[in-house]
Every structure is written in structure tokens, then in C-alpha cells.
Fold these 3 entries.
Entry 1:
Amino acid sequence: MAQAQAQAPHPPLEGAQLVIGTIAVSLAVFMNVLDTSIANVSIPSISGDLGVSADQGTWVITSFAVANAISVPLTGWLTDRIGQVRLFMASIVLFVISSWLCGLAPTLPFLLASRVLQGAVAGPMIPLSQTLLLASYPRAKAPMALSMWAMTTLIAPVAGPILGGWISDNISWPWIFYVNIPVGIIAAGATWMIFRNRDSAIRKAPIDGVGLGLLIVWVGSLQVMLDKGKDLDWFSSTTIVVLALVAVIALAFFIVWELTAEHPVVDLSLFSRRNFTGGTIALSVGYGLYFGNLVLLPLWLQTDIGYTATEAGLVMAPVGLFAVLLSPITGKILPRTDPRYIATLSFLIFALCFWMRSRYTTGVDTYSLLLPTLIQGIGMAGFFIPLVSITLSGLPGNRIPAASGLSNFVRIMCGGIGTSIFQTAWDHRTIMHHAQLAEQANAYNPVFDQSVRQMGAAGFSQPQAYGLFNSMATQQAAQLGVNDLFFVSAGIFVALIALIWITRPERAGGDAGAAAAAAH
């Protein structure tokens, strides 16, 4: 009897309960996503305070990313065994405790252990936030639930570096973790108050120990390879080669095992659904491009244009303006239109923004930097909401947590892959362009010869003139390299539109609405 009651769908929330529930879930998501980027700019402060090198300090980011990537796809399996509300609550509470431990860390090993715990418990939080929100809203307003979720997911990565830099500069690095404590306590209290009687059925499925072990091996190897590849010069390093081989072999065994296991830890059969596959790949590759550029643009501004970390962060901040203003509008019009049209428009806007950035010069002004960022906010308002709606289209409620967890896992992995690829590709393109520019530095080039003579007339010696030319060539090469990546990003976004149109989402919000109606 209890099992039957637990499986019965819960009615949508109304009034103040709906508002409080939405705020609670959104706060938890914001806290989670913020923590993926807030520590990035604080690595020098953390490394100096703990007496370790900056290279060792980057493990603060890597440890969180590895644990988080492993735990996200386990959401569906954990939900079956624990219940979605209890699992969500446990994630928030343990996240707060691990954040407190991170702030207290007296040594690097203690901090890394705390970050591993923090990343592991953070994994189910984002997929379950989608599930809880979809179940809380009436069928017709399910897209609005996704718009609330999307706003926090889009703003947090931009706010993280700004907040992290300000805290490190003006207070001390432990506070980048302590800020999670009050937010987490409020989110946990409100979540328990609203959702405690809305838990899902518990099913004691056997533990897929082999699948879990293979997942940990291949995801851990791949994540460490991506994070350390640039520092170790990629495949010229034996360590990177070994990690790559381990990841590929473990992944192959993992796929075969999970597709044949009676109780798989990750439901890979979801990829047999056209909507899930098309929506997940389009969303994940698009997110990888967005996140890679989110890292590349501030890095370029700081290393080659002379911006400070705070100034570079502020250049990125306006992206959230239109995203916040327009996401609720997207949620309102989504039930009345085909989500593929909104997603297509979003991808075209992203392509336009990256094309505009591909025309930057070393003398770029603030207006030229801010205009594409503002326009990108319009595209972001139509990025997550329709694609998540397409991905979950037609799925029964009991598969929503597993589908959301697997989709978010692929998205997070693509974000990490995008970051690594963009940083490495920028280095390679910069070196190539520098070599091409250096070829022009010879006495047989009248333009170069005249420039050297003019520098000599201005009081520069020949070595000084050559040094100045090399400095200018280095800056210009970096500029051309970053322009190449912006241009390629624009082209890939246009190409991804084809993936959107292989899907066949249900009309009139049936996709998200069906999920909402059956999410329990």
C-alpha cells in the first residue's frame, strides 16, 4: 500500500509553496554551479597560503571535477535506492558540511579530500533539481520550471570568477567555501519544508559493482587527463598516454557491461531514443563550446589585452542580463511553439556572437567586447530550456532522474573537454601564427626593414628593435589564434542545428509537461 502511494503522482504545488520550492531548488543549483568556477581565480591564494606550488594547487579544481563527473550519472540509481527528495536533501546537507571542511583545511591533502567529498555529493543535485521543479509545476507551466532552472545555471559560471576574485582579494580564500553555508542551510530548510512529503518510490535494485568500478576508472582517468594534459604537453607525456589508454579501454568495457547488465548503474539504453540522443548531444557540444570560450575570453583579455581578473570578469557579466530577463518569456512561449525553433534561433545567435568576436583586434574597445556578450544573453535564454525539454520529451516519469543525470553528465564532460581543447588549440594556433609572422622578419622584406630603421631613428638599438617586433608579433599571434577559435565556434554552432532537427519533440509542452505530470 505504501509503495503504491509513493508511486502515485503528486499534485503540482501552488501559491507560496510553489514560490518557496522554486527558490529553494534554485538556490541549491546556484550554490552547486557557482562552486565549479569560484575557486579557479583563487588558486594562487590557496597555493601560497598552504605552501604548495600553483601546479599542485590546481588539484583543488581537478579533485572536485573528477568526483562530480563520477557521481552525476549515478543519480538515477541512487534515486531508486534513496528517493529523490531524501537524496536531494542529503546532497545539500553534505555539500554544506564539505564546504565548511574546505574552508577549515590546514593542509592541501585535507583540502583535496574535502573537495572530493564536495564534488561527489554535488553530483545528484542538478539532475534532481530538474526533476523536482518539473514535478512542482502544472503541466502547462512545466517550461516555466525549466526557465527558472536555466537562469541559475547560466548566471553562476559567470558570477563565480568575479565573486571568487573579490573574496580572495578583499577577505581570504576560505570564504569562497564558507559562502555556501548560509545559502545551503536556507535551501535545505526550505526544501524539507516544501518537498518532504513528495518523495519518490524506493526500489532496492542490486548494486552494479562492476559497472560502478568501470565508471570510476574511465571517468577519473579521462578527467585527470583533460586537467593535466596541457601542463604535461599532452601525448608527449607517458602519463597522459597511459591515462588515455585506461580511459578508452575502461569505457569500452563499461558500455558493453551496462548494455547487458540486468540492473545497470547507468541506463545507456536512453540513447536509443532519438529525442534524448539529439537533444543531449546538441546541448552538450554547445555547452562545451560556450564553456571553452567562457574560459578563453577572460584568459585572452588578461594575458594579451592587459585587463585585470576583475575587469575581465566584468566584461563577461552582462551575459546574464538578457538571460535573466528573457528566460521566463521563453518558458511562457515554449508550450505554444516547437522548441526546435527556439533552440535553432539560440544557436544562430551564438554563432553571430562568436563571428563578431572573431573580428577582434589587439586594439579592441570596451563597447566591442560588451556588445556580443549582451547579445549572447539572448541566445542563452533559449539554450537550456528548449533543449532540456527536447531531451526529456516522451520519457515516463520514473526515467526522468536517470535521463537528467546522464544528460547532465555528458554536458559536464563536454564542458571539461571544451576547456582543455580550447586552451591547447589556442597555444598551437598562437605558435603557428607567430612562426608565420616571424618569417617576415628579414632584411629582404622592405616593410620590416623600414620599421627597423624607424625604430633605430627613434633611438632603439637593433636588438631592441628586434625584441619589440617579437613582442608585437607574440601579441598579434595570440590575437589571431583566439580569432580562429571564435570563428570555428561560430561554424560548429551552425552545424549543430542539424542535430536539433533530427528530434521529434511532442507539441504544446507535452514533452516537459508529461515529465512534470509523471515525475514521481
Entry 2:
Amino acid sequence: MKRIKNKYDLVVVGGGHAGIEASLIAQKMGINVVLVSMDTKSVGRMSCNPAIGGLAKGQMVKELDVLGGHMAMFADMCTLQSKTLNLSKGRSVWSPRSQIDKIKYEKTVQKYIKRVGLPVLKGEAVSITEKGGKIKSVVLSSGEEIFCVSAILTCGTFLNGLIHIGEKKIKAGRMGEENSIGITESLQSLGFLSGRLKTGTPPRIKRSSVDWSSGEPGFGDKKPKPLSYHTKKFIPKDEPCFAFRTNKKTHDLILKNINKSPMYSGDIDSSGPRYCPSIEDKVYKFSHNPSHILQLEPEWTNSEQIYVNGFSTSLPEDIQLKCLKSVKGLENVEFLRPGYAIEYDFFFPSQLKNTLETKKIEGLFFAGQINGTSGYEEASSQGLMAGINASLKIKKEKELRLKRNDAYIGVLIDDLVIKDTNEPYRMFTSRAEYRLQLRASNADQRLLKYSKKFNLLDEKMIKDLTKKVKKTKEVEGILNKTNIKPEDINPFLKKSGEKEINQPTKASNLLKRPKVLLKNLPKIKKIQMNNINKNFIEEILFEAETKIKYSGYINRQKEEIEKTKVYEDMIIPADFDYNEIKSISNESREKLIQILPETIGQAQRINGIRPTDISILLVYLKRWFHVKRNVNLKKK
């Protein structure tokens, strides 16, 4: 076995979204890091849909940006269309989404990596070695051994990846790229438990073969806003996406041939993403729906290749084509690539700590689809957190742990490590019990303190965001103190159907009315924006308005968080023996032993753990600490 000449503190395996964020943040934190990729030309590739952001995902991208991540910045440089989703609902679930030029994105990432001098090594990692329970090295198929202090595995769908198109099977990590063999077997030999999951991707069709007049065009926002706080000028293109609809003929064709789909023929036993079902699942499980929407999305500027969002499938290629040709406007459609399903190995994330470090091997971290997740944003979030915590571990500094009330990223990681997964995990706003506080518009207010503490952003950005947060609080304070005269606001209130006022009323009280916005109030002279980044002014006013509108709900959630804080901070020692607890059910004991929660708060959220189990656990923990303390006193 060769030993590679350069010694690295951190080795990141995989050049997808998780690997990029992990390696770039580590480099920013001063760590000697190398990114290992099977194909250096595919680093940063968007292998599935040409979009970044979306419901809950947009919030995560904003959080990434505040914590020193790069996805939002790259996306802004490559945006084809920018849109805020869920505008008909409450502001807490408004979610930014950008349609992306996939080719430009990939090139932008690679160009940036080259500019900052991040070392990228072409090679296939096939195993890891450990010594004394600590990571020792990453071994490549070439025989080279890279010795390291920490390693992060971000292997995507490449671990023993197998593509299905009808009865046709192709060993690949994604279409046109080899799968990875060896890592799964290496980790299994070290005691890690793995499983198999499935995901899928729809066909790519020729633009010129579509009758676009039959589709309904959808455009972006008239005043688009960037995903990244770093973006100074944001004037994206507004290339439309077009909606088409399946029909009875489409559904009949699918049902007639459904036994040819590997999911229904028995060729695939692994679970797919429930919330991103294949067209076969949609038609079979939701037979009451007469049609389903297909969004035809451009994959790059003026691309001949079009992504058929909503038609993920593993049916045989000829059946896929027949089905699409049954859709009005797609009668003459031609394929550039058929849709397919892909099976791959993952490792149950309950084997991880909240930092994404494995419990079995110190210094070894997992991030992305290896943990059973689905989506660019989920992968990037894990990559960033793994990169930060691996770097802090190398520096021998205290790790960063995001709580559920801190960020969607905190919800994501907490769900993974305590609930495990039997299907690809996808983030939704409904997964966050504190979503009123986890808004896309206040990511800076929630997370800037961590960026300051761990130096995750450059000085100028920290300075600008600090001013922004301070000014938002200042504007909120002014609105809470400023009185509005009846004659200045009553004409608007009468026109909008709101009850008029008969005496001076605080601006904040008026803003709590559903139909009243800050722009409807008479100009408040005290609100000045001197020395504030121009891009932030509109966000400051919007966020101050939002905090006031939601203040009652937000304050109640803060009270709930304070009540549970004691349990979130109550650590369960790693060497605590759950077998000593005789008063709980075997099922509860097995779950606690399997997941090994790090805090009482985590233990409470394990499926099947009852309040009585927690009460008993607290009694035994108190006794455990008492015995430990007496033993230590005797030693002294």
C-alpha cells in the first residue's frame, strides 16, 4: 500500500453538494483539507432537478449562507428564474426557490474551488482504517493511503449504486458515472449498519419536440430577491417553466404496464421518497386524481434539454415515451435521456452524534445521502455542519450543535440521529415545530452569533449583518413607540375594511391587523438607513414588520422553548448503561441502546419513548451521577 506524500488533517470523500460545503468551510477555518472525487470534472454537478431552494429548503439555503456556506452564492450567479413559494400562506413558510443553469453552476463551483486553491484529488476511496477507535486513514483504489485526523464521507448515491430502467440494470452512481464499491463493505466490517434506499429522476426531453403553446407558462417574481447575503447585484433572467397535465390515457398506459416497473415487479425492495413519488406511485396510489401536473423546466440557458418535473419513473424506456406522448403538447416528444430509479447503500444515521461524527469511530463523519437524506439542500447543510465540526475537532475546540429552535438545519440533524429513516428524508416546514421562528427572512438574526463565534464569515460580512440585525431591532423599537394619528391612517383603514381608530395608536398595534402593512402607514421620520447596505433595507423593514405581526405567537413559542431548555441541556453520558434500568419496557430500553441519545431532550423525541420512561431515566441518571461523584471523591 502506498502512502500519499501530502499529509492532510481532513479528507473529504465525494465532490457533490455535501463534499463541496464540507471542504470549503474547513479550508476557510484554516484546516489542511483535501477533497477526493472519482471524477474531478463532475464536482458540483446537479444530478437531478435544476433548482435550489423551495419549501423549507429555501430556509436551509439562507441558513447555510449565514453559517459560511456557498450554495446560495453559487445559485445567485446561475439563476434562470427566482420565485418565492407559499405567498398565499403565513410568512413563516414563505420559501425562496431559484431555477438554475446547471452547466453554469457546475462551472462556477469548479472555478471557485480553483480560485481559492482547494486541493482536489482524483481517486476512488474504497475503505477507511482506524486505530484505537479513531480514524487513521482513507484508502484509495490505487493503493494510496491518505493519513488524516478526520474524514468526512459524502458518497451520495454512489455506494453500490444500481440504476433501473424497466428490466434493464446498470451499475452506476448516476447515469454515465461509475458506482463506488468498497466503502460499504469497509464500514460494515467496522460494525456500521447499512441499508438500501431508492430515488429516481425523470426523463430529459428535446425542447424542439414540445408544443409549448399547449403548456401554461410560469414566471418568477417581478422583484426577485437573492438567496445570498453576499450578492450585491441580482438581476436574473426570468425563463418560464411550463405546466402540462397527464390524462386518463396516460394513467391507463401506466397501470397497464405497472408490473414492468421494478418497484412493482419486485426487483426493488428498498424504499423511495414518499413525498417525491414516481409517476407510477402517483397514478396507482392516488387513482382518484384525474390528472397530475408535469412542470417542464429548462436545465440551462436556452437548453435543448428539458427536465420533466413530476414524471420520475423506472418504467421501460418505450413505455415512458408512450406515456409522455399521450399528454397534450407532447405528442411528438423525443428523449434525450429516459427516467430511471437508482438503488444505493446508506448508513442508519442513529449511528451519528448530533455533530454528524460517528459514535463508533472518533474523527469519522458522514454527510448527505449516505445518511439517508434526499435533496441538494439537505446534503449541503449536513456537509457544512460536518465540515465545521470536523474542523473544530481538529482544532480541539468545542463543537457547534444547532438546536431545533435554532434552524431547519438543527431540525434536520436532530430528526436523523434520533428517528432514523426507512425512506429518503426530505425537509418540510411541517417537520419544524418552531417554524414561526425559523423564517427565511431572519436567518441572520438566528445564526449570526455562531458565525461570529467560529469565524465562519469574513469580517466585512459579519460587520454588515451585525448592522442589519441591529437596525431591524431598532426599527421594531421605533414602531413600538411611534403613535399614528387617526386622520393619517383612517382613510386607508376605511378603504381596506378595517375598523377605524379614534385616538393615536401605536404603529405596532396597527401592523398586527392582517390588512395593514408598513407601506400603508404614514412615513415615520425616525426610521433612517444611514450606512446600511442598500440590499438590506427592504429586508430590514420586512422583518421588523413580520416580527411585530407574529409577536404573540412568537412569544408563546419562546415560552415553550424555555420550558424544554432544561432537558435539551441535560447531557446523558456516553458510558451510561441503559441495561441498569429495570423499570422500563424492553422495547424502550432497546431503542435507547440503539440510538444512544446525547441529551434528555433527544430521548424524549425518540418514537415510542413514553413520559414515564423519561421520568424513570431521570431517576437513574441522578443515581448514576451520585455514584460517579462518590467514586471520584474516594479516588482523591
Entry 3:
Amino acid sequence: MKIVFHILILITVSLSMTVPASCTGGYDRDLMEAERLLRHEMADSAMAILDRSEPEKMNSNDYACYILLLAQASFKQGHSYASDSLLYETARYFVKNGDKDRECLATLYTGMIRFSNNDLEGAAIRLKQAEHLLEYITDKYMHNKVYAALTALNYAVANDSLGLMYARKELASAIAMRDNVQLSFAYNHLACLYSRLGNRDSLMHYISAVEPLIPYMPRYARVQNLSNVGFYYQMLGDSVKGEEYIRQSYKTEPIVANSNLLAKIYFNRGDTASAMNIWRNALAAADAAGEAELRGAMARILYEAGKYKESGDNSTRADFLNDSLQLERKARKANVLQLDYDHRMSMEKARRNSRVAVAVLICVILGAAAIIIVIIAGSRHADAVKEDYKNRIDDLETDSSRLKKDMSRLKKELVDIEESKTRKAARGKELFDCLNAGGNIQLWTKADFDSFFSYYDIVDPDFRKRASATYRSLSRGNRLLLILSEMSFDNDSVCRIMGISPGSLRSARSRLRSKMCNGDCGVTLKES
């Protein structure tokens, strides 16, 4: 899981550096400044410029560039505010204008947004489309970013052979660019793949290749690579060297990854006070996304140490933060789509005004030939235009009212979903605490079982994946038996809780063993 997070972090950061070389043709100065800020890793400042822009007043070229910059800035901040469908429409605009570079870039980010939303199939389609555009593009940096994204995609779906192929292409393009930063990313991605394959020699080779490049990296890349190299050395069994690199990363700049790794080292050593101090400092400096990740890591480590209450509290908080972030992203996406609607309406209004101006000009020309006819025709035309405008205004007011009602209904549905989820988690915690206090399931309803299972997914987020990878078609009773075993209840306690005899318990476990998967049922790692 950590390796997935590390490779996706580096790929996300490296992708976020990609911006159009220049959006020529009436390109707004504010957008040029936002572009410059993105190149200098100042995404927050770039987003502030984009937020105060007025896209409804932009021409088509500026608007397409605005959408592309907005996608990059939000992605660079660790969010996906842009709509992938809207970005795909932007790519189609660049197709019409014959701009292959921006068509490829917009298509690439469409795939990365889908990837960040866990739509791996949709991401694969868009990223492959971007790859096939590379034959028209000479910019090796663009090649490097497309191959990096395809490396991440194939890593996420555990297609290691394709992952290695694209990682090597990424490496070749980085070598052609003579760019130490992109070279370090490529070496790191290959190390991730070989670590999962268990090839220690290749892992060591690529770690050694990354190490001499670290001093040449910008600060953000140096911090992450130091943390990754330390993690790899820990995997290889060299805990002393691993801790040394993690400490270097933490001293350079505390981030979520190195804070979690260093805190875990102290915690496993028994120095709980130092571990908690690192976590507290990291939580104080983290944004909502960082806090969610930190608390998730804390929950796992505390659970392994038997601190179930503290683990559950942190897991619940992490789940709440993730839900809030998801709601915020949906709201920002809704705002972007509304901006797009306003822009399209503005363009349509301009086209309508142009048609009216042409009609007026024709009337003036005809008026020179027949004044009386023109006056009559002009009067009728004016009445028709006014009636047409009145009808259009009425239509717009009706559409506006309908849109407001739809937005209100959607907001209410979101609130209802959040309240239902909170009630379910609270009920599950009551049942969980009841079992730990000596209770049983004799009076449980189907809804109680569902609430208990949902809460346990918060307490042990990896349980469902481990159970699904090890067993086939688990019934409600099978799943409860597995969870009770995970909670370390002895046989007598399990019999009491489930209301069954020891013989029935042995039979249940025998049936459960018969459902074990054949062959390799290893857990598949997922994106962070």
C-alpha cells in the first residue's frame, strides 16, 4: 500500500509540472501568469488567479486554455476539481484547431482525473489515446509524462509486465531529456515495480541509481525520494540505513510520508511519546487530505499494537475527512460545470446578437428602396424581436428556477446520505462495544449486521480485501466468524456470542476452510 502511494505521489507531482508551452492567439495575461506560477510549483497562487478569472468573458481559445490550466492546478494541489468530461470537450477543441500537444495534454489529464477517481477502465482508454498521439509530438517531456501515467495505471491493476515496459519507456525518454529529476522519477517507479516482484537485486540497482541524483533535485522531489529510498532499505532489511534516509527526508521538510515512517519507527521501538509528538506536529501542519492520510496510518499502527479504541477513533476521523473532501470536490466540480454553462450561454448570446445586427443592416438597405415598406416591416420586426426576447427571457427564468430546485434537491440528498452513513457507523460502534463488553447477537437484525460490518470496515480497513482474497462467497455468518477471530475472541466467547455449541463452531470453521481460494490469493495493492 505504501509503495502504491509513493509511486502515485511522484507521478502526480511530475505530471503537475506539465503545462502548455504557450497558449497563443489572444491569450489573457492573467492566464499567462497562472501558467508561469504552475511552472514554478506555485499551484495555490495559480489557482487564486484562475478563481478570480471571468471565463464567461473569454474567447474560445482563452477558455480552452483556462480549463486545461484549471485541471492542472487542481490536480497539482492533490484534488480533481475539473470535470473529466469537460476536459475531454476541451481536447476536442484542440483537435479542431490542430493543436496536437494540447490535445494530448488534455487527454492525458482526462485519464489522470479518472485514475484518481478509481475509474481504471476509463483512465486506460484516455491514457492510451494520449499515447497514440505521441507519434505527432516531438516533445520528449510529453512522452515522459504519458509513459509515467501508464506506468501508474498498470501498477495499480497489477499488470507488472506492462508496467515494466512503460517504466522503461519513461526511463528512455528521461535519459533523452537529460533531466535528472525525471530520471529519478523513472528509477523510483522501476524500484516500486521490482520491490513488488520481489526482485531484490533489481530493487537495489534502482535504489543505487536514485541516490546520486537526490542532491540535484528540487526540494519537493528530494524530500519524497529520500523518504522512498529509506522505505526501500527497510524492505531490504537494512533498517539502519533506512532510518537514516527517512530522518534526512524529515529534516529537509516534514511531509505526510516521512512523518508516518519516522513515527512508526519510534512506535515500534516503544518510544510512544516521540511517535505521538511527530504525529501531532504533522497533524497540526497538514491540510484535510494530509490529516486523513495521517490518521489512517495511525489507525493501522495503533490497531497492530492492540490499541483498538484509539485506532477506531482515528479511523472514524479519517473516514469523515475523506467524505468531506469528496463532497468538497463534488461542489467544486459543480461550480466548474456551471462556469462552463455560463460561458456557453454567453457565446450563444453573442451569436444571437450578431444575427440581430445583420438583420437590422438588411432592413436599413431595404429601407433606402422603400421607406414605407421598411417602416411597416421595421415596426413588425421590432414587435417580433421584442416578443422573441420576452419569450427567451421567460425561458431563461424558467431554466434558472429549475436549476435552483435541482441544486437544492441534490444538496438535500447529499446531506441525507451523510446522516444515514453517520447513524449506521454509530450503531455499528454500539454493537462492536457491546460484543467487547460480553454481549451476543441473539437479537440482532439484518440492519444490525450491516451496521456492525460497516463499522468494522472503519476499524480494520484492510479486512474486507483480505477476506475477499482468501475466501469465496462469504455468508453473513462466515463474515462474523472471521471478524470475531480477528478480534481475538476465544472459542467459548465465540460460541456465547453466536449462540452455538462448540461442535457447531467446529463445523462452521470447517465449512469456512472449504471456501478458501485455490492457488495464490494474495491481496492486490490499490491507488493512494
